[in-house]
Specification:
The chain has 152 residues and is of the alpha+beta class. It is built from two helices and seven strands. It has one domain. Strands 1, 2, 3, 4, 5, 6 and 7 form a seven-stranded mixed sheet that branches.
Length: 152
């Protein structure tokens, strides 16, 4: 990955879990917690997702002064190969929706300063940066341009 990741534990973790709950309520009409949800987030394709993880990564080797990436990860069982319900091309609308609704909201709650937002959907939990042929993952990267997500 090439950067330093920060998981939010302690006070920061409380803030991030609260951010997930607030943002999930805003976009999904219910509440969701950081690593497990009593209610799921609905996205434009109709699939339901669980917020899984949010990471801030410092990539000091990129750009003039380095870059900060916000990586938001969601469990999305409908993307599983075996399920065959949602393809990557179908999910692009969900990825953009999550960037604009959840990603920008989380960046704003922490004062902004995010250069890139990575949205990661996975059918089963897997550590960031790991590969497993049994796990389906969809990812898209976005630049924050004029307060909106612009696909890269």
């Amino acid at each position: 990955m090439g950067g330093n990741s920060q998981r939010f534990d302690g006070v920061g973790g409380v803030l991030m879990r609260a951010a997930w709950i607030v943002l999930a309520a805003l976009i999904g009409g219910g509440s969701a917690s950081f690593a497990g949800a009593s209610e799921l987030i609905k996205v434009p394709t109709g699939q339901s997702m669980v917020p899984y993880e949010a990471l801030w990564e410092d990539h000091l080797d990129l750009g003039k002064n380095g870059e900060t990436w916000l990586v938001i990860r969601f469990l999305a069982p409908d993307i599983a190969k075996a399920a065959g319900k949602i393809s990557y091309s179908d999910a692009t609308v969900d990825l953009e929706f999550l960037c604009n609704s959840v990603g920008l909201g989380m960046a704003a709650l922490t004062g902004g300063g995010v250069d890139q937002i990575i949205v990661n959907l996975m059918d089963k939990p897997i550590a960031r940066g790991e590969r497993d042929q049994e796990v389906t993952q969809f990812m898209s990267a976005y630049r924050v341009v004029n307060g909106a997500c612009e696909w890269e």
